[in-house]
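Appendix B, example 12.
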Amino acid sequence: MRDLEGKVAVVTGGGSGIGRATAIALAEAGAAVVVADIDDDGGRETVNLLEEAGGRAAFVHTDVTRWEDWERLVAVAEETFGRLDILHNNAGINTGWPRFPEAPRDRWDRTLAVNLWAVIAGIQAAVPAMRRSGGGVIVNSASLAGLVAYDTDPIYAATKHGVVGLTRGLAFLKDEANIRVNCVCPSFVDTPLPRRRLASMSDEERARHEAILARMPMLAPAEVAEAVLEFVRDGSLAGQAMAIMYGQPHRLVPAAISIG
Protein backbone atom coordinates (compact mmCIF):
# COMPACT_ATOMS: atom_id res chain seq x y z
CA MET A 1 0.00 0.00 0.00
CA ARG A 2 1.73 3.17 -1.23
CA ASP A 3 -0.26 5.59 0.89
CA LEU A 4 2.75 7.70 1.90
CA GLU A 5 3.61 9.01 -1.57
CA GLY A 6 4.93 12.56 -1.27
CA LYS A 7 5.85 12.18 2.39
CA VAL A 8 9.41 12.53 3.68
CA ALA A 9 10.73 10.58 6.68
CA VAL A 10 13.86 10.67 8.81
CA VAL A 11 14.89 7.46 10.59
CA THR A 12 17.69 7.52 13.16
CA GLY A 13 19.61 4.35 13.81
CA GLY A 14 18.60 3.45 10.27
CA GLY A 15 21.73 1.45 9.53
CA SER A 16 20.48 -1.77 11.12
CA GLY A 17 17.78 -3.45 13.17
CA ILE A 18 14.50 -1.66 13.84
CA GLY A 19 15.65 1.49 12.04
CA ARG A 20 16.49 -0.35 8.84
CA ALA A 21 13.21 -2.30 8.96
CA THR A 22 11.24 0.93 9.44
CA ALA A 23 13.11 2.67 6.61
CA ILE A 24 12.22 -0.24 4.30
CA ALA A 25 8.57 -0.20 5.39
CA LEU A 26 8.29 3.57 4.89
CA ALA A 27 9.90 3.38 1.45
CA GLU A 28 7.60 0.53 0.43
CA ALA A 29 4.68 2.77 1.42
CA GLY A 30 6.00 5.49 -0.91
CA ALA A 31 7.87 7.84 1.43
CA ALA A 32 11.27 9.30 0.69
CA VAL A 33 13.59 8.31 3.54
CA VAL A 34 16.59 10.06 5.05
CA VAL A 35 18.61 7.42 6.87
CA ALA A 36 20.61 8.71 9.84
CA ASP A 37 23.25 6.71 11.67
CA ILE A 38 26.69 7.01 13.20
CA ASP A 39 27.54 3.80 11.29
CA ASP A 40 28.33 5.00 7.78
CA ASP A 41 28.57 1.54 6.22
CA GLY A 42 25.26 0.38 7.70
CA GLY A 43 23.49 3.60 6.79
CA ARG A 44 24.69 3.54 3.20
CA GLU A 45 23.75 -0.13 2.91
CA THR A 46 20.20 0.73 3.97
CA VAL A 47 20.03 3.49 1.37
CA ASN A 48 21.27 1.08 -1.30
CA LEU A 49 18.55 -1.40 -0.35
CA LEU A 50 15.88 1.28 -0.65
CA GLU A 51 17.14 2.62 -3.96
CA GLU A 52 17.53 -0.85 -5.47
CA ALA A 53 13.84 -1.41 -4.66
CA GLY A 54 12.91 1.82 -6.46
CA GLY A 55 12.71 4.08 -3.42
CA ARG A 56 14.08 7.56 -2.84
CA ALA A 57 16.63 7.78 -0.05
CA ALA A 58 19.64 9.65 1.31
CA PHE A 59 22.14 8.99 4.08
CA VAL A 60 23.37 11.52 6.64
CA HIS A 61 26.11 10.63 9.10
CA THR A 62 24.54 11.57 12.42
CA ASP A 63 25.63 11.51 16.03
CA VAL A 64 22.25 12.05 17.69
CA THR A 65 23.95 13.45 20.81
CA ARG A 66 25.14 16.49 18.81
CA TRP A 67 22.67 19.31 18.27
CA GLU A 68 24.47 20.48 15.14
CA ASP A 69 24.02 17.01 13.62
CA TRP A 70 20.28 17.25 14.22
CA GLU A 71 20.15 20.66 12.55
CA ARG A 72 22.03 19.31 9.52
CA LEU A 73 19.84 16.20 9.35
CA VAL A 74 16.60 18.17 9.21
CA ALA A 75 18.14 20.61 6.71
CA VAL A 76 19.16 17.74 4.41
CA ALA A 77 15.63 16.32 4.51
CA GLU A 78 14.14 19.67 3.47
CA GLU A 79 16.83 20.53 0.93
CA THR A 80 16.86 17.08 -0.71
CA PHE A 81 13.18 16.16 -0.64
CA GLY A 82 11.44 19.45 0.10
CA ARG A 83 9.83 18.78 3.46
CA LEU A 84 9.74 16.67 6.64
CA ASP A 85 6.61 14.74 7.62
CA ILE A 86 7.77 11.74 9.66
CA LEU A 87 10.49 11.19 12.26
CA HIS A 88 11.28 7.79 13.69
CA ASN A 89 13.40 8.68 16.72
CA ASN A 90 14.95 5.25 16.96
CA ALA A 91 18.69 5.37 17.75
CA GLY A 92 19.50 3.73 21.07
CA ILE A 93 22.13 1.91 23.11
CA ASN A 94 22.33 -0.02 26.37
CA THR A 95 24.66 0.54 29.30
CA GLY A 96 26.25 -2.89 29.21
CA TRP A 97 27.81 -4.83 32.04
CA PRO A 98 28.48 -4.27 34.91
CA ARG A 99 25.11 -2.75 35.55
CA PHE A 100 24.48 0.42 37.51
CA PRO A 101 25.65 1.47 40.09
CA GLU A 102 28.91 -0.30 39.23
CA ALA A 103 28.71 0.84 35.60
CA PRO A 104 31.36 3.48 34.80
CA ARG A 105 30.03 7.01 34.63
CA ASP A 106 30.99 7.52 30.99
CA ARG A 107 28.84 4.55 29.95
CA TRP A 108 25.66 5.53 31.76
CA ASP A 109 26.18 9.15 30.78
CA ARG A 110 26.30 8.08 27.10
CA THR A 111 23.16 5.94 27.54
CA LEU A 112 21.28 8.96 28.91
CA ALA A 113 22.53 11.12 26.04
CA VAL A 114 21.63 8.72 23.21
CA ASN A 115 18.39 7.30 24.56
CA LEU A 116 16.77 10.38 26.11
CA TRP A 117 18.56 13.65 25.39
CA ALA A 118 18.74 12.81 21.68
CA VAL A 119 15.02 12.00 21.54
CA ILE A 120 14.22 15.38 23.08
CA ALA A 121 16.64 17.13 20.70
CA GLY A 122 15.25 15.28 17.70
CA ILE A 123 11.72 16.38 18.46
CA GLN A 124 12.78 19.98 18.96
CA ALA A 125 14.72 19.93 15.69
CA ALA A 126 11.90 18.30 13.71
CA VAL A 127 8.89 20.28 14.93
CA PRO A 128 9.67 23.55 13.08
CA ALA A 129 10.12 21.66 9.79
CA MET A 130 6.89 19.73 10.38
CA ARG A 131 5.07 23.01 11.09
CA ARG A 132 6.29 24.23 7.70
CA SER A 133 4.84 21.06 6.14
CA GLY A 134 1.47 21.53 7.84
CA GLY A 135 1.98 18.79 10.43
CA GLY A 136 3.66 15.45 10.91
CA VAL A 137 4.20 12.30 12.92
CA ILE A 138 6.96 11.48 15.39
CA VAL A 139 7.36 7.90 16.59
CA ASN A 140 9.87 7.36 19.38
CA SER A 141 11.44 3.98 20.06
CA ALA A 142 10.94 3.28 23.76
CA SER A 143 10.86 -0.27 25.09
CA LEU A 144 8.87 -2.64 27.24
CA ALA A 145 11.59 -1.67 29.74
CA GLY A 146 9.95 1.76 29.75
CA LEU A 147 6.72 0.29 31.07
CA VAL A 148 7.92 -2.32 33.59
CA ALA A 149 10.76 -2.86 36.06
CA TYR A 150 13.91 -3.95 34.22
CA ASP A 151 16.73 -4.63 36.63
CA THR A 152 19.13 -5.96 33.97
CA ASP A 153 19.95 -2.38 32.93
CA PRO A 154 18.39 0.23 35.24
CA ILE A 155 19.82 3.19 33.33
CA TYR A 156 18.44 1.91 30.03
CA ALA A 157 15.08 1.41 31.77
CA ALA A 158 15.22 4.95 33.16
CA THR A 159 15.79 6.42 29.71
CA LYS A 160 12.95 4.42 28.18
CA HIS A 161 10.56 5.41 30.99
CA GLY A 162 11.63 8.96 30.18
CA VAL A 163 10.78 8.50 26.50
CA VAL A 164 7.33 7.16 27.41
CA GLY A 165 6.72 10.10 29.76
CA LEU A 166 7.92 12.60 27.17
CA THR A 167 5.70 11.06 24.52
CA ARG A 168 2.60 11.21 26.70
CA GLY A 169 3.40 14.77 27.70
CA LEU A 170 3.53 15.92 24.06
CA ALA A 171 -0.01 14.84 23.16
CA PHE A 172 -0.93 18.54 23.05
CA LEU A 173 1.05 18.97 19.81
CA LYS A 174 -1.72 17.20 17.89
CA ASP A 175 -4.16 20.04 18.51
CA GLU A 176 -1.57 22.80 18.58
CA ALA A 177 0.46 21.93 15.47
CA ASN A 178 -1.09 18.84 13.83
CA ILE A 179 1.97 16.88 14.99
CA ARG A 180 1.31 13.49 16.58
CA VAL A 181 3.91 12.04 18.94
CA ASN A 182 3.69 8.37 19.94
CA CYS A 183 6.10 5.62 20.98
CA VAL A 184 6.60 1.92 20.40
CA CYS A 185 7.55 -0.26 23.38
CA PRO A 186 8.81 -3.61 22.08
CA SER A 187 10.06 -6.49 24.17
CA PHE A 188 13.34 -8.10 23.11
CA VAL A 189 14.06 -7.56 19.41
CA ASP A 190 16.57 -9.51 17.32
CA THR A 191 18.99 -6.66 16.62
CA PRO A 192 22.69 -5.99 17.36
CA LEU A 193 21.71 -4.21 20.61
CA PRO A 194 20.64 -7.24 22.71
CA ARG A 195 23.46 -9.31 21.26
CA ARG A 196 25.99 -6.73 22.48
CA ARG A 197 24.23 -6.65 25.85
CA LEU A 198 24.48 -10.43 26.21
CA ALA A 199 28.15 -10.39 25.27
CA SER A 200 28.92 -7.88 28.04
CA MET A 201 27.17 -9.83 30.84
CA SER A 202 28.64 -12.10 33.44
CA ASP A 203 28.02 -15.82 32.97
CA GLU A 204 25.42 -15.80 35.76
CA GLU A 205 23.54 -12.82 34.38
CA ARG A 206 23.69 -14.18 30.83
CA ALA A 207 22.13 -17.46 31.98
CA ARG A 208 19.33 -15.54 33.72
CA HIS A 209 18.71 -13.43 30.65
CA GLU A 210 18.67 -16.43 28.33
CA ALA A 211 16.07 -18.05 30.59
CA ILE A 212 13.87 -14.98 30.07
CA LEU A 213 14.35 -15.23 26.30
CA ALA A 214 13.26 -18.85 26.41
CA ARG A 215 9.89 -17.67 27.75
CA MET A 216 9.72 -14.52 25.61
CA PRO A 217 11.31 -15.08 22.17
CA MET A 218 12.76 -12.14 20.31
CA LEU A 219 10.66 -10.10 17.91
CA ALA A 220 11.74 -9.56 14.32
CA PRO A 221 12.60 -5.90 13.56
CA ALA A 222 9.87 -5.91 10.87
CA GLU A 223 7.25 -6.49 13.58
CA VAL A 224 8.27 -3.26 15.27
CA ALA A 225 8.36 -1.44 11.94
CA GLU A 226 4.78 -2.55 11.38
CA ALA A 227 3.79 -0.87 14.67
CA VAL A 228 5.62 2.32 13.66
CA LEU A 229 3.60 2.40 10.44
CA GLU A 230 0.40 1.92 12.46
CA PHE A 231 1.16 5.17 14.27
CA VAL A 232 2.09 6.94 11.05
CA ARG A 233 -1.20 5.97 9.43
CA ASP A 234 -3.65 6.38 12.31
CA GLY A 235 -4.43 10.08 12.56
CA SER A 236 -6.36 9.65 15.81
CA LEU A 237 -3.43 8.57 17.99
CA ALA A 238 -1.27 11.00 19.96
CA GLY A 239 0.64 10.65 23.22
CA GLN A 240 0.27 6.87 23.12
CA ALA A 241 2.64 4.05 24.10
CA MET A 242 2.21 0.75 22.25
CA ALA A 243 3.42 -2.50 23.81
CA ILE A 244 4.73 -5.05 21.31
CA MET A 245 5.28 -8.57 22.61
CA TYR A 246 6.00 -11.83 20.87
CA GLY A 247 2.85 -13.70 19.87
CA GLN A 248 0.48 -11.02 21.19
CA PRO A 249 -1.54 -8.28 19.46
CA HIS A 250 -0.10 -4.79 19.69
CA ARG A 251 -1.83 -2.86 22.44
CA LEU A 252 -1.91 0.70 23.70
CA VAL A 253 -0.87 1.00 27.34
CA PRO A 254 -2.54 3.82 29.28
CA ALA A 255 -0.79 5.69 32.04
CA ALA A 256 -1.34 4.12 35.45
CA ILE A 257 -2.86 7.30 36.89
CA SER A 258 -4.89 10.00 35.18
CA ILE A 259 -5.15 13.52 36.60
CA GLY A 260 -7.28 16.41 35.50
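The longest strand covers residues 179-186. The two ends are 40 Å apart (CA to CA).
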